[in-house]
Amino acid sequence: MKNTRLHNLTQDFLDNKLDAEGQQEFYALLRDPGQREALTEKFMELTGLPDMDLDFDPSLQPLLDNVKSVDLPRKTPVKRMRYWRWAAAVGLLVIAGSIYRLTEEHGSTPPPITQRKPVAPGKQGAVLTLADGSAVLLDSMKNGVVANQAGTNVVLNNGQVVYNAEESGAAATAYNTISTPRGRQFSVVLPDGTKVWLNAASSLRYPVAFSGNTREVRITGEAYFEVAADAARPFSVRFNEKGVVEVLGTAFNINAYTDEPLVKTTLLSGSIRVNKQQVLRPGEQANIDNNNGITIESSAETENAIAWKKGLFMMSSTDLPALFRQISRWYDIEVNMKGELPKRSFGGTIGRDVNLTDIIEALNIYGVNCRLENNKLIVQP
Length: 381
Prior knowledge:
Elements: H1 3-14, H2 20-31, H3 33-47, H4 61-65, H5 83-106, E1 123-124, E2 127-129, E3 135-137, E4 144-149, E5 152-156, E6 160-165, E7 175-180, E8 184-189, E9 195-198, E10 202-207, E11 215-226, E12 235-239, E13 243-247, E14 251-256, E15 263-269, E16 272-274, E17 278-280, E18 285-288, E19 294-297, H6 302-305, E20 312-314, H7 320-331, E21 334-337, E22 349-351, H8 356-365, E23 369-373, E24 376-380
Parallel strand pairs: 1-8, 6-8, 11-12, 21-24
Antiparallel strand pairs: 2-3, 2-7, 4-5, 5-6, 7-10, 8-9, 9-11, 10-11, 11-14, 12-13, 13-16, 14-15, 15-18, 16-17, 18-19, 20-22, 23-24
Helix pairs in contact: 1-3, 2-3, 5-8
């Protein structure tokens, strides 16, 4: 086979773009021991991998078990892949080679490589509801002043809303709400300088200027706070009607989605009090059940709690149902989990900037049976 065609077939396989004709050619290459060697060399060339054989080698398992979100240098000027996606491609090729050896032995027809329409990841975006009830779609706005609320300029600056007071004594009774639909996230700098990041399907309600002796906001969903210190005016966050977190100056994350079994408040720095009864220290997490009962994790995995803010899905120590709830919110897709999912041990991270089909490929390598059907993600034991 000419090197150009071999190059194109291999690159299309890595990019999941093989058409029906290309699939048949690719199958033929894998069935032919001589051509398989040429295919292996081309695969190594395009991915920058060291030489290896397509036969499964146990030494590959750590590679597939430690999927990382870092860039891998390439030997050729083709589009670079994330390391985890590269690992997924290795696994697919190894699995494909095994399938073809089995089909040769039993004389059966190899299954087609599934062509799946990409589901794009979420992005920056939100809806800002002003004091008069009017709504501003921030996705389509350019940088600059987007509104003036009771003497406070609301400024959009590269995916972040900032409140700049023009005059003192702005009316504290004027409230704004910033909401992120599914598949969106956004950040806001409140009038006191507190920074808030909102995950998908979340909202934050706050006054356009803080007055008096307290600073209080309300959230739904999930948010990460870096609270501006002001000992004279304690900061509080209310959630789910009865829940409240009180702080002076600190950094913490609240996961209060209604479809999660627990509300989780994770403290990174400073000090907070949860529901007026439990004081947390850095590295601790308060888990609040539906009856407002609180249990404390003294050595919480704080990196897991804020992975979303860093643009990551944290695979380690994440149970499958929780992971698929995250995927559902971020990709704005229905997830149908059929039966009890098996316990899986994961490692590494996957970037939230990849298509859903790429995540499906990575999960399938881990042994998680999931597929995309009619814009629904079907997950089975």
